[in-house]
TrEMBL record:
Cross-referenced SUPFAM superfamilies: Nudix
Domain of life: Bacteria
Presence of the UniProt keyword Metal-binding in the record: yes
Cofactor: Mg(2+); Zn(2+)
GO biological process, one term: NAD+ catabolic process
Family, similarity comment: Belongs to the Nudix hydrolase family. NudC subfamily.
PANTHER family recorded: NAD-CAPPED RNA HYDROLASE NUDT12, NUDIX HYDROLASE, NUDC SUBFAMILY
Keywords for the protein's UniProt record, in alphabetical order: Hydrolase, Magnesium, Manganese, Metal-binding, NAD
Molecular function terms from GO: metal ion binding; NADH pyrophosphatase activity
NCBIfam families (alphabetical): PRK00241.1
Annotated catalysed reactions: a 5'-end NAD(+)-phospho-ribonucleoside in mRNA + H2O = a 5'-end phospho-adenosine-phospho-ribonucleoside in mRNA + beta-nicotinamide D-ribonucleotide + 2 H(+)
Protein name: NAD(+) diphosphatase
Any Pfam family the entry gives: NUDIX
Length: 308
């Protein structure tokens, strides 16, 4: 079996700021930093403003003297300033002297520096969770944010709820030599192919999930499942855990759960050519288009294709 590692850290897995988790419970210290803090605005479509390759950060004090209840604490920059995020309309600071544009994190993230990537991924995950966690799953009581947005409290029972993360596996199946499987979901555009993924079930390990999901989706029995890396995918709250596994090209495909429209074995050279065309947004009419750089799928595919 041809083993390999990821060549680079997936884009949304980069670390560029101190998460400063101690400040989530030391609220006085967190609030004390508010007058000099920076603020990331994320709109209802999970878009942010970017300028010169960085997420645009406003002055936190511009929205009030204290953090509003719905603000979430993201961490601390290297210069010590705190960073918070809110769900709000996008507004550039008045003193910004470089062009700004709206960025949809789902479509691209390669323009971000490490700090921006971490802040935007964390803010998006937390704000999406708050949007869907306003009532207790136990008794239906309205909950309130506490711990700088990292928890919600049921005032009737005192029960805390913490941000949900839904783990999912994503796996490149290859033959140990020169071919790998790529597949297209039924809801995807024509010619867009990627590697296989699925959510982990209760009582299931990541490795067992890989074997089950690939059998369900394309009918292949895989072996030698090996871990590669992981990446948050805050749409709304997933964690993608990457693997590669060995499959037999002589096995026939069978699409058992209805999610996959087609699958095929592609050679390393075919995949390299597709990578050279860019991603699925390309105007190319080639048979094979691949996912964009923001996804761990792209990094896994690129790392496998780079092997000699």
């Amino acid at each position: 079996m041809s083993s390999f590692r990821l060549r680079q850290v997936p884009l949304l897995s980069r670390v560029g700021a101190d998460r400063a988790d101690a400040l989530r419970t030391d609220i006085d210290a967190a609030v004390a930093g508010w007058p000099d803090a920076l603020l990331l605005r994320v709109d209802r479509r999970n878009q942010v403003l970017i300028s010169a390759g960085r997420a645009v950060l406003n002055s936190a004090a511009s929205i009030g003297a204290r953090p509003p209840e719905h603000a979430v604490f993201l961490g601390r920059l290297h210069d010590g300033r705190h960073v918070w995020a809110v769900r709000a309309e996008l507004e550039p600071p008045d003193d910004l002297d470089t062009p700004v544009e709206v960025l949809d994190l789902r479509r691209t993230g390669d323009v971000f520096d490490d700090v921006s990537a971490q802040l935007v991924a964390t803010a998006t995950a937390l704000l999406n969770w708050h949007d869907s966690a306003r009532f207790s799953p136990v008794d239906g009581a309205a909950t309130t944010p506490i711990k700088a947005g990292w928890s919600r409290l049921d005032p009737l029972t005192g029960r805390e709820e913490f941000p949900r993360i839904d783990p999912a596996v994503i796996c490149l199946v290859h033959d140990g030599h020169d071919r790998a499987v790529l597949a297209r979901q039924t809801v995807w555009p024509q010619r867009l192919f990627s590697i296989l993924a699925g959510f982990v079930e209760a009582g299931e390990s990541f490795e067992s999930c890989v074997v089950r999901e690939i059998a369900e989706e394309i009918g292949l029995a895989v072996t030698d499942v090996e871990y590669l890396g992981s990446q948050p995918w805050p749409f709304p709250r997933s964690l993608m855990v990457g693997f590669h596994a060995l499959g037999d090209p002589e096995q026939e495909f069978s699409f058992n759960d209805g999610e996959i429209a087609e699958a095929a074995w592609f050679t390393r050279e075919e995949i390299r050519e597709a990578l050279g065309r860019g991603d699925w947004s390309s105007a190319s009419d080639a048979r094979l288009l691949l996912p964009g750089s923001i996804s761990i799928a792209r990094e896994i595919i690129e790392s496998w294709a780079a092997q000699d």
